[in-house]
Amino acid sequence: KLIEESMYELGFKPSYQAFRTQASSMGNAFYASNNHGTVCNGGMAMAAVAFMDVYPEEGAWFVSGTMKGMEFNIDKWYTGAWYEGAGYWEYALGYTVKFIESLRGMFGTDFGFGSLQGLGIAAEKEIGMHGALGIYNYADAGLGKYYSPEMMWLGSEFNNSKVATKVVKEYNGKFPQNHRQYGESKTLALLWYDPEMIGEDATFEKDFFYEDLDVITMREGWEDTDTFVGVKAGVLNEAHSQLDSGSFIFESDGIRWLQDMGAGSYVDGYFESNSGGRRWQFIQNRAEGHSTVTVN
């Protein structure tokens, strides 16, 4: 009873206000085109489905609302690469998959969200961002490996055994502790692990061009000592962007010789990205914090 009432007071009520007026503490999160929109709509859809037997009218209303809300950001997957950087690729994908699975679990259909253009190649796009030491962590991303359990879902969903095999071989069943709870990753891995999808082949193309992001990655091969290079151009006014156009990373012999500093601490002022905003005072976001040309 406590959980049901708490969900209604702390979840459904403020979310309803945000949907209808965009005047709550969450602002226009449900209509955002960035990861915030994916997370809020995906999370609310899960809650609506989970409590549908207790709050059927509210649950139905929220499912309908989150489907409309997801339309503002779901098309960001159209090339398979999330535009806010490789770190938020994993974050947004997690809630996109949960959203799709929630619809399927309740209604027996995902209303077309699961066949979204680009979703079928999203796993290989993220794999292509990896060197031996971790992701190409441009924008607000941490240096680490982002082989999430949702990648096993993608492997099974789109019959790509190489993806599922890569995830299992990379971690041997042990997922990293990044911004998500480790227990959640293990639970989802149990749900989406399919032994029939695990094979021997886990090799991919050596070079990846992310046309919509103006990013390219290149490598000698997929061994830990192989040379890996990532180059970033692109626009600088997207969510989580940094002043990193023209920057690059270089990795060889198991060492990342030229690095990207990745994300700074999300403290007060970090997201003030307007002209003169405090975001550009953080070294991680400035041109001086990247391997690129600085003109002053």
Describe how the helices and strands are arranged.
Blueprint: H1 2-21, H2 35-50, H3 56-70, H4 86-107, H5 122-127, E1 130-131, E2 134-135, H6 149-157, H7 161-171, H8 182-192, E3 208-210, E4 215-219, E5 228-232, E6 247-252, E7 255-258
Antiparallel strand pairs: 1-2, 3-4, 4-5, 5-6, 6-7
Helix pairs in contact: 2-3, 2-4, 6-7, 6-8
**N-to-C series of helices and strands:** HHHHHEEHHHEEEEE
List unreliable stretches of 5+ residues: none
Identify the strand order in the major beta sheet: 3-4-5-6-7
For the sheet with most strands, the description reads: 5 strands, antiparallel
C-alpha Rg, in Å?
Answer: 20 Å
Query: What oligomeric arrangement do these chains adopt?
Result: single chain
Shape: globular
Secondary structure: number of strands: 7
**Nearest-integer average pLDDT:** 88
Q: What percentage of the residues does DSSP assign to strands (E)? A: 5-15%
Supply the helix-strand structural class: alpha+beta
Number of helices: 8
Structure keywords:
296 residues, alpha+beta, 5-stranded antiparallel beta sheet, 8 helices
Can you describe what's shown?
There is one protein chain. With 296 residues, this protein is α+β, with helices and mostly antiparallel strands. The protein is built from eight helices and seven strands. It has helices at 2-21, 35-50, 56-70, 86-107, 122-127, 149-157, 161-171, 182-192; strands at 130-131, 134-135, 208-210, 215-219, 228-232, 247-252, 255-258. The strands form two sheets. It has a five-stranded antiparallel sheet, with no helix packed on it. A hairpin with a 2-residue loop joins strand 6 (247-252) and strand 7 (255-258). Helix 2 (35-50) packs parallel to helix 4 (86-107) and helix 6 packs parallel to helix 8 (182-192). The mean pLDDT is 88.
